[in-house]
Specification:
414 residues, 4-stranded mixed β-sheet, UDP-n-acetylglucosamine1-carboxyvinyl-transferase, Chain, binds ligand EPZ, 14 helices, alpha/beta
């Protein structure tokens, strides 16, 4: 499919109401966790996105059947294979999440080692250390991780860093392994809590005690019906976009409790935000105050919103600093934004952003969130901005341009 390009023009304000979709990063592990049962699972509020279609493909490669209509996925059938080819893994990094459920169910497998990534180094050593503690045995050869047939054992695993993916992978392995597995220093993102809820509905018993997960697993889990939580990163993207472009917008179906840190920073910048039933209402400041942020695991400021914050601060009255502590090199977008006239200077993992007057240029997106940030910058710039490599954006935002257009953004796709 030829890649599409977004054409963005200066937009003075956004207004109206949009509905936030189901969370991509919550849906992905839940869909993978259906490998833990032979019974039917009905997953609702699944966003229709490229990454989700890739996970459907992966489930089918492993033997499952998938029917998807109207944001509901019905997953049936049995896990038949533990062999994950490179072409599948290359398309979607999150495909490494199948290792946990596959090992718990069939005890062996051969998975391609994931390659590099545009947001920086993304090792999976923490995932593998966890499996090793659960008595998995594997060797890495020819770009593949080959796991010998072994039964996993419940145990205690202490993560050096609260990695989202490692927590999810080990959590799924533990849910399908009889006995109690303790995961210390686990990630606490809402997507982890959602996965715990799903696995509990399947029959695992899970207790969350601060940063520790106590997982009492079973080798036979059952099917269930489950609704995916709203996408906090999509909601955060629109909250920051409205603050940056200007205007007054209502977000339906958004959870402000998942966005406390972002809402706090937006309020400090002068945006007015109120929660009203299932709506979050936001009104932009006339000129934002400069607010520095530092990314951190949840409940800290999300790394996924860091490029959007950088674009927002281009409008602030004074310079702001953005410190990236989760993916320290997640700044590949800077040179593209400089083409618009953005004043940005990077020192190590700290980006200094100064008030800038932007004018249109052609940009190339380098990853999903940077793509969204570039489109927002395009709406703030005088003249026409085009953003290419848009496939990055379609991987993770459902109906992004339709939603922006319904709010009055001057944007089209060609
Ligand atoms: C998840 O990635 C999300 N992806 C990312 O969203 C998000 O940016 C990230 O969590 C942080 O919130 C999905 O949920 C599919 P990590 P993940 O393991 O699980 C290091 C998006 O745009 N690390 O918490 O890969 C790693 O290098 C995506 O939607 C190890 O050192 O993130 C990084 O510095 C992009 N060893 C840090 O931990 C490991 O074994 C955080 O990674 C694993 C991770």
């Amino acid at each position: 499919m030829p890649d599409r390009v977004a054409r963005c023009g200066f937009t003075s304000s956004l207004a109206g109401r949009i509905k936030i979709s189901g969370s991509k990063n919550a849906a992905l592990p839940v869909l993978v966790a259906t490998l833990l049962t032979d019974e039917d699972c009905l997953i609702e509020n699944v966003p229709a996105l490229e990454d989700i279609f890739s996970i459907f493909h992966l489930l089918k490669v492993l033997g499952k059947k998938v029917r998807f209509s109207g944001n509901t996925a019905k997953i049936t059938g049995k896990l038949k294979s533990g062999d994950l080819p490179e072409r599948v893994v290359r398309k979607l990094r999150a495909s490494v999440l199948v290792i946990g459920p596959v090992l718990a169910r069939i005890g062996y497998g051969s998975f391609s080692v994931p390659g590099g990534c545009a947001i920086g180094e993304r090792p999976i050593d923490l995932h593998l250390e966890g499996f090793r503690k659960m008595k998995a045995e594997f060797e890495i050869a020819g770009g593949r991780m080959n796991f010998k047939k072994r039964k996993l054992h419940s145990t205690t695993i202490k993560l050096r860093f609260p990695s989202v993916g490692a927590t999810e992978n080990i959590l799924m392995a533990a849910a399908g392994t009889p006995g109690v597995t303790k995961i210390i220093n686990a990630a606490k993102e809402p997507e982890i809590t959602a996965l715990c809820d799903f696995l509990s509905q399947m029959g695992a018993k899970i207790k969350i005690e601060g940063n520790t997960l106590l997982v009492n697993g079973k080798d036979r889990l059952s099917g269930c019906r489950f609704g995916v939580i709203p996408d906090r990163i999509e909601a955060g993207t629109f909250l920051i976009a409205v603050s940056a472009v200007g205007g007054e917008v209502e977000l339906e179906n958004a959870e402000d409790r998942h966005l406390r840190n972002v809402v706090k920073k937006l309020a400090l910048s002068g945006a007015k935000i109120v929660k009203c039933g299932n709506l979050i209402k936001i009104k932009s400041p006339r000129i934002p105050k400069s607010v520095s942020v530092e990314t951190a695991p949840y409940p800290g400021f999300p790394t996924d919103l860091q490029p959007l914050w950088a674009v927002y601060m281009l409008k602030a009255e004074k310079a702001a600093e953005i410190k990236e502590k989760v993916f320290p090199t997640r700044f590949m977008y800077i040179d593209e934004l400089k083409r618009l006239g953005a004043r940005m200077r990077l020192r190590g993992n700290v980006l200094k952003v100064g008030k800038s007057s932007l004018s249109g240029a052609h940009l190339l997106a380098c990853d999903l969130r940077a793509a969204a940030a570039m489109v927002v910058a395009g709406l703030m710039a005088r003249g026409e901005t085009t953003v290419g490599n848009l496939f990055h954006l379609f991987r993770g935002y459902e109906n992004f341009f339709e939603k922006l257009k319904s709010l009055g953004a001057n944007v089209s796709i060609k």
